[in-house]
Amino acid sequence: MNRADVFRAMGEFFAAGFFENENAAYLERNVRGLVRTLENVPLLPYEGGKLYPSGAGNLWNPENRLLVCFDYSFGMRLDADRLRQKAAELLHGQNADQRFRGNQLLKATEELAFLRESDIPPQFALGGRGWTHGVVHYERLIREGLTGILQRVEENLPRNPEFYGALRELLQAMIAYLKRCLAFLRPLAPEPLIKTLERVPEFGARTFYEAVFAYNFFWYFDGCDSGGRLDAVLDCYRQTESEEEITALCREMWRNYDLNDGWHVLLDPRSSLCVPAIRAQRDFRRPNSGILIDKHTPQPVWDAIFENWGAGNPSPCLYAKDNYEQYLAETKLFSREDTGQFCFGGCTELMIQGKSNTKSIDAGIHVLRILETTGLQFADFDAFHAALLANIRRQIALMIRCVKRNRDAAALLLPNPVRTLFFDDCIERGREFNAGGARYYCSVINVVGLTNLINAVYAVKEAFAGKLSVSVSTLAAALAADFQGYESLLHELRNLPKYGNDNPAVDSIAGQMMEEIFSAVAAFSTPKHLFLPAVILFTIYGACGDDIGATPDGRLAGEALADSFGATQGTDLNGPTALLKSAARMNQRRAIGTPVLNLRLNQALFQSAETRTRLQALLNSYFQMGGLQVQPTISNPELLEKARQEPENFPNLIVRIGGFSEYFNRLSPQLQLEVIKRTEHHF
Question: What CATH number should be reported for the domain whose range is 349-630?
Fold first, then answer.
């Protein structure tokens, strides 16, 4: 019995295929694992709707029992601990055959675990560690179908028989999987669904229903990641379908996103599908959808947005179409056509639809930790400031070297054949997705602790200027003591001006710090590897403060950080206009990765036409000042506190948390409290 047989006996289809030919290249071994999965994995159940697959369940691991399977981020998902446990059980067996198989399983597990290792040190694993979200080229996939992709592969087969032969094998297995689905569904599903599955996604779509069906199937094939510009892709297929029919199909799609923790979809007000898609999401927290906004956004679209927000659903969030297009064009790293195809994956990380291998989040730097390790032992503020920036630049340079090393390792060891088929220009270039096949290779780099750093640097500047009641050395001693015995100083620091209140002095520091940090990251960009700075803390802003001591902004040791690009929770006291003006003073063209600005709005704002109009004007003004996006949370403190105490009574309460939407009762107790602490804005 060889290693493939060991995994086959365990029902581990991917691993069995992976070890069938250990002398083959990793791409071929990975493909064989995918093929064996498609041949053997149980099909997802049919739930009676118009779409299939549907409901909860990974197409590649429908019962969530496989320890090795396809993963859109790394190409392979692995539960190494459970495999080692199974190997240990065999090693303690009563006969030599069991012990032999145990050794085979253990050695195979160590090989798989090595392949999944990251060369990015934990200190830079801030929201991600070489992770990859992506948006496949849905427009092309729906138009061509699997047979169209197969034709392109076969046309190139003579150029590189091993590479294209492996891709052909995978495509043929996908088509065979569709035949399995069809045989399974014939006695169960209505005739329109059967007729549609006979056509798509094997062949190109002709009707709106076929296009939506194919979109959904390719999303499941890709592992349920992000959907990109869904309405813009599907709009050209619409013929006589009513808004009610479109809304119903969108509801099925959104339910699939919700049940499978799917990620981002970007809506376009110019599409006739936009309003039905917004309305369809009323009851679902996923996708964490966004919408492009400009001065031409029709009022009915704004009304649909505010109807969702007023009902407590914070989707869609808002993106400034003109600003993104302008800032992307200024990089001169994307073609003009591709600049117009930007979208978002994961929480809200920027990418080009179907054309960019975007590591999101690839790595990050913790600027508050760098502040802590820089210390305050300097003669004056200028010396402190210079040392702080030098340390930040040093850490950025080290992080970038680690990211590049991890990129090169992934190109060699972590192929992703599914995305090699589904992204431009992998087939044309004859290169695997992680080995330079996609048109653009991007790394989203997270900046953690930015808001706290801004407030802390302002406080240190005041101390060096003699404007605090204590000296800089006393401030340092108070930080070391976590303000024990320095309670009056803590009160003084917390009452200093804070970012998010339209204070020119604080905002000047904010603009300078952002320019220095984000420019240092972006300076490493080349046409072959783009570095996109971002501030996306989603659920990590609590944990990222766990081991950081007290800081000069009045934060105690171990307390959570500020949530992403916004003000520290509860410190933006001068209203929403002041918060947005502070954010706009930072040059956000440096942060196209994306800067998440969470804005908590009182639900009463949406009960009158007057307050809706004022809010719409405010948001448009923010984008005209250069802002990139706004992520709303709609609620009130009393409701959130009640939901914290009685989670069983509020299963559908949705909030935005650092770039994505989530049910409130799924958050950790710490993050629930941090959401409650956010300032609630109203007029």
Answer: 3.20.70.20
